[in-house]
Amino acid sequence: MSSALSTDLACKELVELVTDYLEQTLSLEEQTRFEHHLTMCRACKEYLRQIRSTIDISRKLAEHALPPEVQDELLAVFRRWKTG
Amino acid sequence: MVRDSARLQSAASEDVASLEALGTPGSTRKEDRRLVAAIRAGDEGVFICLVKRHHRAMIRLARAYVPPGAADEVAQEAWIGVLKGLHKFEGRSSLKAWIFRILINCARLRGAREARTVPFSSLDEDPQEPAVAEERFLDAGHPRWPGHWLKSPEPWMDERLISEETLSMVARAMDELPRAQCEVMRLRDVEGWTSAEVCEALEISEANQRVLLHRARSKVRQALEPYVSAGGS
Fold it and tell me: Is ipTM beyond 0.95?
């Protein structure tokens, strides 16, 4: 259960605004309400942290180098195109 | 979701030209023209440089449409398409967006042939879907805390977050997303593209992109939760 809140933003609404918050597309007023809620609600703060972790982990999926044989194959494609 | 439609409308008036400029600044256009000219002149080094920059991402994106084994072939097909179409590249979009549009076309065609795809639709794939299941919250009629957490998210364990298993769980969760959500999340969060770049490559609006990204991230978080939560199994 959330801790005491003196804000008109419900947790259920906040979770729908997380992406807009991270994308910085909230109006100043919405952003203030969002951040105010976070200072009062540990659960939502944790939720935001989890979304950030999800993004960080996703980024790791890109960390794979191109295998040399793939590069060779594409080079062959290029040479065929050049001569063809 | 009422908020979504309101935001969609307000964002519809955003200045499209300025968004495009954001994705592909003048310096990029100049660089793109240089790359295209070099490749057309037969410069292998420049071509390989481009391959190194984009090929992995192309394979990953193709997986939104076709089985993993076919994704490599689709990416290779796309490069053939890129080379054959190079003389038609006019620099109206960035080279990156142009290459990825060719990739997406190849992947969609291949996907349709393998009857794995449904027609592309972005917003109506799962209407009204909340980021977090309704039952996690107290209902709107609750006397004291309407709409607040009934079951709060438990902190995540760092040691689980960095495991290979978590990584493959994220990959799997992403594979299971509706196609448009999968595309946006791959490009934004895996490849690290800006929203303007994604909009340009996928030819969608900023608002649409944001809604897709929101749904995608919410679902992937949800898929991870039971595994990485301190209180989870």
Answer: no
